[in-house]
Write a structure and sequence with these properties.
The structure is a homodimer. By secondary structure, chain A is mainly α. The first copy, chain A, contains 7 helices and 2 strands. In chain A, α1 packs across α4. Chain A binds a DNA duplex through α3.
Chain lengths: 166, 166
DNA sequence: GCAGTATTACTCGGATAGTCACTGTCCGAGTCGCTCCGG
DNA sequence: CCGGAGCGACTCGGACAGTGACTATCCGAGTAATACTGC
């Protein structure tokens, strides 16, 4: 039970994109450089975020990625599901229907109680993630981060942000 | 983010062991046969449960496994952690300290907010699992299962249960 | 017939290969900006 | 000097290898029941 490292990357990228002016974009190359990760692999996850409707992608020169909707409407759950997929972590293989005491399928009208319990716990997990939105995370981060970092990041962003003329 | 199939196997085995008289055991071979899974691989997980103190193992002929404590004191969380390990699913790699805006380690006195949020959600997941104990699951199962299955299982158990003389 | 002992068969435990998903990477399709040319 | 077409370079998108964790398996250590032998 290990989450993909891409989840962490995607959340950090989304938070950074949330700090940009409305409509501005950052290229995948810039996002990779800022976080010190491989560009080729990061693109894989950014693509997933775009496919899920969390990011908008702009092609061509001066293109890049931007949030598809306001940061307060993007939750951690949205990002986790986009990167990891929406299939539950626990997948019941119905072993109760196997072995010497197995009956025909019609004898199991109710779902497996173990599966129900595991999915209920996973629902609690998802609810907790759904309650965390990018806006709140960014606010908490800005309030506790080292001022020097904020200044450095602001300077770096000013040299890498693309603002379309339209 | 996929849980090991062994989790499902382990929970089913623990529930079956909980249905036995106090002190009685079932061999790994019997548990594997009842659930229709590979014995060799199931033993791997049973060993983990024994190492975690959830099961007691009895070696030698007429040996097997039994619950190490009453079913109402064994939660799904205990089993999941024993099989999957107690490391959190989300592991922060501190990418915030990388890239062109990185500072020295002393500049990050607080834990990463993203990590905090992810771990909080995972805590909710674990709390939900901790609330589900084997006794309640077994009761719910016995109340909804097909009567024919219960009879078959009882007959099968009577032929495979080992009760030590001591 | 009984006690003691060696045997034996059965059990769990740890170390060892195989397979799938995640990780990491590459090249191609598409698009915008820039340059050059003509008017 | 201005407009337009062509070119070029940069961007994202999808398809292709490499690695680690889970899956599956085997053989060895240990133990209790059993059969045998001697008394």
């Amino acid at each position: 039970m290990k989450l993909s490292d891409g989840v962490e990357w995607a959340i950090h990228c989304a938070m950074l994109l949330g700090a940009l002016p409305a409509g501005a974009t950052l290229s995948g190359k810039a996002l990779a450089e800022f976080h010190g990760v491989a560009e080729s692999y990061l693109l894989k996850h950014l693509k997933a975020l775009a496919a899920a409707g969390i990011l908008d992608s702009v092609t061509g020169p001066q293109g890049g990625y931007r949030l598809a909707r306001p940061a307060e409407r993007i939750s951690l759950l949205d990002i986790v599901l986009a990167v990891e997929g929406d299939r539950p972590a626990f997948r019941c293989t119905e072993i109760r229907r196997r072995g010497p005491c197995a009956l025909e399928d019609a004898a199991y009208p109710r779902p497996c109680g173990i599966n129900t319990a595991m999915l209920k716990a996973e629902a609690a997990y998802r609810d907790a993630l759904a309650r965390e939105d990018l806006k709140s995370l960014s606010a908490g981060f800005a309030g506790t981060a080292d001022p020097r970092f904020l200044a450095l990041a602001q300077a770096w962003l000013s040299g890498n942000t693309r603002i379309p003329k339209s």
